[in-house]
Design goal:
heterodimer; A: mainly alpha; Cytochrome Bc1 Complex, Chain D, domain 2; 5 helices; about 75% helix; B: about 400 residues; alpha+beta; 16-stranded antiparallel β-barrel; two-stranded antiparallel ribbon; 4 helices; elongated
Chain lengths: ~90, ~400
């Protein structure tokens, strides 16, 4: 039971650390001019680790957003990598 | 008396000319009148239109700006909404022709998946599995359903039912349009060596580590259940698919860490530990140890895809149990797939080995496959398996497999 409480405490600490960065995240959207290039590389490197890369034209901008978040969790991407890939996909469809 | 023909001819020609020209001249006069009236009508219409145009005021620059703003807002409307969603999933259909059994269409499966995201904070991620059973019934199951909180760039906190984080195959490679062969590697199916899913909560993510990248996944869950043999004195198999029940009341803690020293090279280690108990008549016996270990590696280079994975689940002994002996269920496979560029053909070779405390479950397998990719997410597969198991058991039968798989 102690292990369970320790795990819950760890998660709570991670959550507490989340909110300030969540606010910073919204500000980052317009800035990085190299994000598109980084996104193209991250897309090529990461998608093919499990499956064939998907054509950016397969989905609309709004559809790519939850898909990329799903893949961020499933493929182990950082938040920045996921945003770069999303920018690349939305800019290429 | 002779007549003079010349005046006669002139008279005839004159008559003919009068006949020919008389009506034409009359008709021409009518046309001119009609045309004149039409022109007058047109002139009137033009004047009316000019009057209308004169009354119109040219749009102001403010009005143009407002219109442009409206168009821009419409074009980026999706960015302003709080929630976005996407319907995804996959489906696969298959045919199997095994030795000692007639060929049959034995797979018709549809896995719809739903992604609902609220802002950059939360993702609901769920997948169903709907398949046709042997007797024609439809079997439906919840593959996974998690709510994930995007805590920060390096962590996602999640809870619900999730694919086991032990190794790679069960969490990322099992969908038909991703798995390079029509079949699951031996030992990586349901109730075999590899845990399938878990109900619990966890945290996972990735972070840079110098020039490399690392990923991690830590979770806690209810753990598996044990199934006894018909005699009730041996553990037949481990049901390591997520459940909301936890008869022994003790949780299982697990995790996986992976390093990516190169962008397309992944090396992973995973483990889990906890307790599990045999349940008799709804009552749990004394708990016993439950330990899991996994190791996996994957590498892609041009058209080559290499994978190797090992997993084992170990159940400890419990002298007070009706089934005192524990056991070890372990499996591994090595797979190589090569895309014959620039064609859409792909060849696959896999070797797998599954060892358990029960001879009828043990199996070694060579599988040889040929795939044709109609699209990056649509594949036709053909494979032949050389199986070595207990003589007379289905695990010993070689078989042909055909499969079509589509991911969307």
């Amino acid at each position: 039971m102690i292990k369970l409480y320790a795990a819950a405490l760890t998660m709570a600490a991670l959550l507490a650390a989340a909110w300030p960065m969540g606010a910073a995240r919204a500000e980052e959207k317009k800035l990085d001019p190299a994000a598109f290039a980084r996104g193209a590389k991250a897309w090529a490197d990461n998608c093919s680790r499990c499956h064939n890369v998907r054509d950016p034209k397969e989905l609309r901008d709004d559809q790519w957003k939850p898909v990329v978040t799903h893949m961020r969790i499933r493929a182990g991407l950082t938040g920045q990598e996921a945003r770069d890939i999303l920018l690349f996909l939305q800019g290429s469809n | 008396m002779t007549s003079n023909p010349r005046p006669m001819r002139l008279a005839v020609w004159g008559a003919l000319a009068a006949i020919a020209t008389g009506p034409t001249l009359a008709a021409g006069t009518d046309d001119v009148k009609a045309l004149k009236s039409e022109i007058e009508a047109l002139k009137k219409e033009v004047e009316e239109l000019r009057a209308i145009v004169r009354k119109q005021v040219p749009p102001s620059s403010e009005a143009v700006a407002a219109l442009r703003q409206e168009i821009a807002r419409a074009q980026s409307e999706w960015k302003d909404v709080g929630s976005t969603k996407h319907f995804a999933g996959y489906a696969d259909m298959g045919y199997t022709d095994a030795k000692n059994r007639r060929g049959l269409f034995d797979l018709a499966r549809f896995n719809p998946a739903f992604h609902y995201q609220y802002q950059d904070l939360v993702l609901l991620d769920a997948e169903l599995e709907i398949a046709v059973g042997e007797n024609g019934s439809t079997e439906t199951g919840l593959e996974f359903a998690t709510i994930g909180l995007l805590a920060h760039d390096y962590a996602v906190v999640y809870a619900g039912k999730f694919n086991s984080g032990i190794g790679q195959f069960r969490q990322n490679l099992h969908p038909g349009w991703i798995n390079r062969l029509p079949s699951t590697p031996v030992g990586f199916g349901h109730d075999q060596a590899a845990p399938v899913s878990e109900v619990g909560a966890g945290v996972r993510g990735a972070f840079p580590l110098g020039s490399m990248r690392a990923t991690y996944d830590l979770w806690v869950g209810n753990g598996p259940r044990l199934e006894l043999n018909p005699a009730g004195d041996e553990i037949e198999m481990i049901e390591a698919s997520g459940a909301t029940g936890d008869p022994d009341g003790k949780k299982v803690f697990g995790g996986r860490v992976a390093l990516l020293p190169l962008p397309r090279l992944e090396l992973g280690l995973s483990a889990a530990t906890g307790k599990v108990a045999v349940v008799q008549g709804g009552v749990a016996e004394a708990a016993r140890d439950y330990d899991v270990f996994g190791a996996d590696a994957a590498y892609q280079w041009r058209g080559l895809d290499l994978r190797v994975e090992y997993v084992e689940q170990k159940i400890g002994d419990q002298a007070a149990s009706v089934a005192p002996e524990g056991g070890r269920w372990k499996a591994w496979y090595l797979q190589a797939a090569y895309r014959l560029a620039p064609t859409q053909w792909e060849g696959v070779l896999r070797y797998g080995d599954f060892k358990t405390p029960h001879a009828d479950q043990n199996q070694k397998q060579w599988a040889l496959g040929l795939n044709y990719w109609f699209a990056p997410n649509l594949v036709g597969k053909m494979a032949y398996e050389f199986n070595k198991g207990l003589a007379g058991a289905p695990t010993d039968d070689n078989r042909w497999l055909l499969q079509a798989a589509y991911g969307f």
